[in-house]
Amino acid sequence: MFNDTKHIVATVRRMHKQQKLSKKLILYSDTRFSGAYEMLIVFNEVFNELANLLDSRLLLTYATIDKNLLDDICEFLSTFDASFEILSDSQRPTLHRVLPLKQLLINKCCIKGDELEGLKQVKHFLGKRLDEKWQISDEHLIATLMHPNLKHFQMCPHLKDRAISLLKEKMFKCQHVLSTNTSTVAYSSSPPTTSSTSTSLPSSSSPSINTNSSSARKRLLLEIYDKPIEMPIRTNIEQELELYLASTCILKEQENDDVLSYWRQNEHLYPTIAYISRRIFAIPACNTSVERLFSTCKNTITDKRTRLGGEKLNKIMFLQKNMNILKEKFGSKSFPTPDDQDTKQKQHTVSLNNESISKKQKTNDPSNNYQNKNEYLIHTESEEI
Q: Are residues 359 and 321 located together in one domain of the fold?
């Protein structure tokens, strides 16, 4: 069905017949996210309109496509498309969403008995590919554990113990850095103290009475009493982690969750975990932001700006990516719009053209040549005198 749909879409686009459709057909592309879904969803929406545009040869291919199967596949792939959009969000961290979304997609690939055979094949293929190709790293587990709404691992409880051990190991590594910074601040802020010596007077010795009998009785009592139980000593790292796992505080707004604000507000309770969160949540969940950056570089480096240095280009890309944040902080008037930039560029080109025209006029003006010649004669006569 996929190959037949792709063939019909390519033929209709090549014959320029899609102007008669309510929507333009989208051809499948290997390099575009959700390329198959975008092609199938538009094809499904204009499915009934295509019958009037196709010739007899394409109508035979068109008749082999099952509309019910096409509807089921589009509905099934809509979950994948929504997951890609969630992970491609550039306004907030998304690394903590990778593990639960992967498990959700794997659960969606479970085959049911009353489904069509074509949908079963699609589910079997995608479920196997998700399990084999989508690898989960340690950072995914730590990020999931550091989100207050996902720390109980209800989507995949078999990975909770591993995530806790990974976070605890990372906390012990970061403890040395935090303790060094804290000790430096404490040493600089503590006032100098003076040492004092004190002498103690020898105490008077009391007479010993029946030392042998008391020691024997003490040994006997020690044998019959319960021995003290040694309780394991928990470190500050373990106490902080247990306190966070036992906390019931969650983020109320789940769609636009701001996990960085949560750790900023609770940094005094969990300083080590908050320190780690700033580094973990800075990792993007997918490479769509990198692809957008490549597109921005292509639009920035034009034929007139091919000599930009690497450092200056990085600064331009940083400003372009954080333009909305900078506008909110400093105001939109501080940053020119694309129309203003085009206007300035046109004015600059017009001024350059005017300067070049004026220079040509000066060089071609005979009065200027005559004046320059007279000045030269006067200068030579003065030298001869």
A: no
